[in-house]
Structures are given as C-alpha cells and as structure tokens.
C-alpha cells in the first residue's frame, strides 16, 4: 500500500523543519507527571483521587510499541476489546459494553459510533501525553454515555521554553501490513505555544478467513492532523484553539468507504482572582462516513456542538466547580427522513473538600434537560480515607445514564422480503398516530440509567510495591431493546403478517467483580505490572425466568432437555469471567536499552445463545475459547536522538482457529496472527 | 463387637435385596424410551412464494417407524408437524385425517413428563389451525440466523389413533443431529426421542 502522494510533500517539509530544530533538555519529573484531570475536572494527584483510575503514560505507550489507541487499551486491566458482528470493535469497561463508555479527547467526546462502538483505530497515539481511564459511572461530570466509565486522551501541552520534535516511521508486517508515519512538534516560547502533529497510516488490510468470500478488513489509508495553538494574553487570560482532522479512505469489493472526523475546540481561561477562575469553552465535532454499496451511497453524518462555561472556586481546603452548557446533537442518516436534532441543556456542580485531615470527599451532580427524551439527574459521591501511611480506602457511588440514540427514536427501516419493519418510537407515533394499540409504545423513551458502586483499597506495604484492589458493581436499568409491537399490519397499510418492531425500556442487567492491580519495582532496572479482573454479569429478567423454571436446555444436541438452574447460568454475551495481564519492563540506563514482555489473558466467552434457551447463555452453550497473547518489544536509543524499536505482537501466533468449528464463517472469533514491527524515531 | 456389626450389615443388605426383588415381581409391561434418527421429511416448492407441496412423512408410534398407509399418528413435511385427528389445515398434498389422534404441548424436561396432561390440553388439527400451536404457544422450533433449532423443553404428548399415549421430544431438524448446526447442514431430517405406552388408555410414562 503506497501512501497518497499529496501527503508526502508536506510531510517531508515538516520533517525537514523538525530536523533543523535544536534539542531542548527537559527534565522529566515522574511525580509531576502523575497528575490527572478526568476524575474531577481539576488537576489532581493520581494516588489521591477517590475514584478508580488507570493512568497510561506516554512512556508506557512508547515502550509498548502502540500505534493506535486500541493497541494500548487492550493491555489494561479491566478493559476488554469486543468484536461485534460486522467486525466493529468496541471497548468493554467493568463488563459494561462500549455503547455505555465515553471516549474523549481532552475532556470532550468523540462522536460517530458504528453499532455502538467508537472505532479506536481512528485514534493515533502519537500526539498523546497520557490516557486516563476513570472506571464506574461519571455522568455527574460528563453526562450521557458515561455509564461504564470514561477514557480521556490527554494531548500534549508545551511547557515553558520547550522545543521538541519527533519524526518516526513504523512498519508492521506478518499478519498485517501497516505503515505509520508521524511527525510532531511541541514548542512554547514566551506567550505562544504550538503543538502540531501529522500522522499517516496505511494498511493492506487482512483476512482472517481466506477460505470464505468475506474480507475481514479492507486496505485503508488515513491521515490525522492535529494543531493546537496556545496563547497567554496575560497572567489572567489564557486561551487555546485546537483542531484535529482525520480522514480515511477504504476500498472494498463493493465500493469506496470514506470517513472524516473533525474536532474543533477552544478554551479561554479567565482568572478573576487568586481563588476564582472561569473557563469559557466551545467544542464542535463532525463525523461523516460515506459508503458505496452497489452504487448506492449511504451517509452517516453526526455532529455535536457544545458551548460551556465552567467556574472554579478555590476555597480553603476545598474547591467548587460549577458549569452550564448546551449540547446540540444532530444526525443525518440515509435511513432517516431528514436531519434529526437534539438539544440538551445541562448544569453541573462538584464540591471537593476535606472534612478531616485524612478524608477527602467529592460530591457532584449533573442535570441534563433534553428536548426529545426524558431528563436525567446524575449525582455522585466519592471519598478516600487514609488509614495510615501504607493503607487507604476509596469508595464511590454514582449514577450514569445514556440518552436514547437517534435510531431508537427515528429509525424507519423496512425489510420488504423479511416481512418486518423497525420504527423508532417517535417515527411510529408520527407515521401512525391513530393505530390501535399505539399506547403500548411510549413516544418518549427514558434514558438508560445505572448506579455504580466502587469500593477499594490502596496498599503500599513496602516502598517498591503497590497494590490496588477494587470491588465494583453496576446496576443498569431501563435498557432499551426492540420488541414486537403486535400492531395490526392491515391497519398500517402494510402487507399481511408484517411484524412491526419498535423500541422500549425493557431490561435490567448488572455487572460486578473485583479488580486487582499490582506494581512491583524489583530494582532500578526491572518493574513488574500485573492486573486481574474477575467479572460476573447477568440479566435480571433472565435470572428470574431461570428461577421460575421457565428455561430449558439440552447439554449437547443428543441429550434430553432439562431445566436450567442458576448454577449453570453464564451471564451476558461477550463477557469473560477472568481477564489478566502481566508485564515485565526492563530498562538498562547504561546502554540506553530497554525491553518488555507483556501477556494478556482472556478466559472463554459466549457470543450468543447456541442451544436455544430463549437467548440465555448457559454453561452448555458454545464458547469462544480462552486465549493468551504475548507481546514483546525491544528498543535502543542512541544519545537520546534516535530510538530504534522492534517488536512482536502475538508471539505465539494465537489465531483462535479452533473457534471456527463452533462459529463457522464468523471472523470475530479469530485473531490476528503474529505481527512483527520495527520503528525508528528521531527526537529533537 | 465387630461380628455384631457384620451381622447387622448382613441383615440390612438382605432386607434391601428382598425388597428389591419384591418390587421386581410387580413387573409392568416395559415402557421403553426410543430414539428415531434422521426421519426424512422432504418438501417441494416450485419457487419463492409458491405453495409447499409433497407427501408428508407419516409415523406410527405403535409400529415405531415410518408408515405409508392410513395408520399414522403424526406426520412431518419440512417444518410442518400434523396429527392424524381433526380436519385438514388446507395445505397442498395434505393427507386425510383418518383417525382421532390428538396432541398436547408441555413445557418440561422430557423425563419429568411422567403422565399425560389433562384431557382439555389435547388438540386436533382444524381448518387454519395446527394442533401444535393451537394453544397460542410456540411451535416446536425457533428459526434464527437461517438455522432451525428444536426448542428445548417442548414435549409433545400424543394420543394415538388407537388411544395409546406417547410423549416425544424433537431434538434436531438436521441430518445426523450435528452438535453445531450451520447453514450448510442438511435440513428436514428429524431426530426425536419418544416413549410409547403400549397399554391402551394408560396415562403413565413410567
């Protein structure tokens, strides 16, 4: 796959500029780096926040040989990448599926989901300073979709008198041909700061099942450009404007698919006095995907515009954040009659205080008042108590919600051959206002809501050892699902026997488990990181059906039916009970050499009910077998100027071919084989 | 002491053996569980939207096999299951109902159906109504992802043309009852378990 020529010229130019810069020595202070902003929307020291947070540093990103956001996230404890049908992949957090997790860049959400998933390959890791993952509901700060948690990508911000740049080239071969070129510059002089990055990524695609007609992933090439300009007008007024453009072109057997993702944000910080400051911000984003299938163009055009004002008041031993904003959401889709719009006003407040010397409490709430669905109120309470020098306890209770999506309100899908139609709740009311039985369908869906509990310990028994234990439970209710409205097709002028489906708030599910993280520094050179999550999930309605003896199963195709018991209930689809990771980082400072080996394990999981027990997954269903993937990276730096890296992903070529027997013609149960990559990076 | 224990054990054992053999002396005519595999129930269809036609595959519980005469209890064609009692539904090539068989559907594990349900549960085919779904319940199968799966825990209790009772559980619609059904599995081959009580009118299955 050769990169488009028109990108090559500016790239060469940029790299030339970057090459000519002189290197500025910047002392890294690791402790200072461990500051996060996502959990409270204020700068807080990672180890002191009362919520469960995972921090992925730039160093870890680089040492792991990551290229796209997906690569690094799947190596984190409690994060599982789930492939849906159509090979759309999403991130599962605390057992909560991707639809209910917010992916953000610098605190504002990325839009444009495919089957509920934000494609994490859309995001290059190159301009990232760090990634912060807050687990558990965070709607009290971030509103809709923050049920499972939020992943916040923090981009580079230049430090005073800093000038650094990099140019890097990565090639991946083996199971996947990929080329990734990146050039970036970060600078700040006096009042002006600039961060600019250009990334080009292309891949020859891959096919996990060459024996079938379908290609798993078609070749693509994409471009990402970031530009952030910061200017300090005075000590009291600082502004920044940031832009990101992503375009991707993918050629399939049926035609061309293009994606364009544009983000614009600007933030103006006005310090009124030493204790009070106000942020005025505006965020606008548009994600547009066009695909051609049999000469027919399908469009998906999603946009979000959000003005927001946030005030921060610093008091003695506490601080108070308040904010108001508006979300202007819009979606134009080929399956809709016209462009659909949501407007939602919101207000939030958070009080962060220390009632006792050893006790930190964060109390927050948010109210979202939308025009097209019912409003949502999301409070959250978190606290951390330091018992002694080596032990602290953290707890938080919060609510999350997810607004009904456009499809659930407006879809107008008609399958002529299949004998059924699917209509959004508002579409059905608008199309057939006089239908008998229409009262069974609520025009205004309720948001899906959750309550999440987290309770954990931070233990530091000895200087080199850190242990984090977190117990969690999420109860999600009012889940929206399709149902057969049983409306009379004749009355709606539809062919006889046409089934009319719509949406309603129906089910209740839970996810609960334990998460364990260990970090042990053996010595100056060697560090071990380990993580484990036990996960238990279930659908409350399914469980009550099982208790009532209404569910029957056959263990194998030839055994007799039996009643399913709760012991044999497995829980929700795509959930593994055990996931774990173990990483060994070695660093040789004398020779500027480092190496690491990372193992990621995921136990078996089900895709769907395979033994016809009313959609319920039990221990006798077919499972995708467990898998262990080992990744290896080695790098060597020459005088901090050049870094060479080689690595192998999926060292033992675990492709999951054994799953083809149970799930034929399903690429989602297969995995990419061994990938070898090499990278060269120039730093200035 | 040791002797006493042994004697005690011996007495208990003898007692058990005797009581067992006493039970055995009350032997009933055997009610056997049998499995029919790959009962082929083909159908014909000229084209999409055309009526389904072809001979039904008839089965007699008394014979324990496929029959071609009028002495059938239940018959299959494709997904369709009809009973030899009542009236024609109105299908192409549908056989005359020559007997007075009827059918009841029970949601239960197979082994837990120890006797027949009450008389009112038994239904017959009629014009536009199949006995198997006349209660408003589900059919014996579910169709999804282009695959037919036999519903677990759906037990058909049949009153045969002779007034005997049989219970049956359809397990598969595909040839050789594969553990993993795919879209390339060969359909319209029934595999089912059944228990037939040879004593006329006896409602017990054990």
Automatic annotation (TrEMBL), chain A:
GO terms for cellular component: cell outer membrane. GO terms for molecular function: siderophore uptake transmembrane transporter activity. Its main location: membrane. Gene3D superfamilies: TonB-dependent receptor, beta-barrel domain (2.40.170.20), TonB-dependent receptor, plug domain (2.170.130.10). InterPro entries: Beta-barrel_TonB, Beta-barrel_TonB_sf, Plug_dom, Plug_dom_sf, TonB-dep_rcpt-like. SUPFAM superfamilies: Porins. This is TonB-dependent receptor. It comes from Tenacibaculum pelagium.
Automatic annotation (TrEMBL), chain B:
It comes from the Bacteria. It holds the Pfam family HmuY. InterPro entries: HmuY (IPR025921). This is HmuY family protein. It comes from Tenacibaculum pelagium.
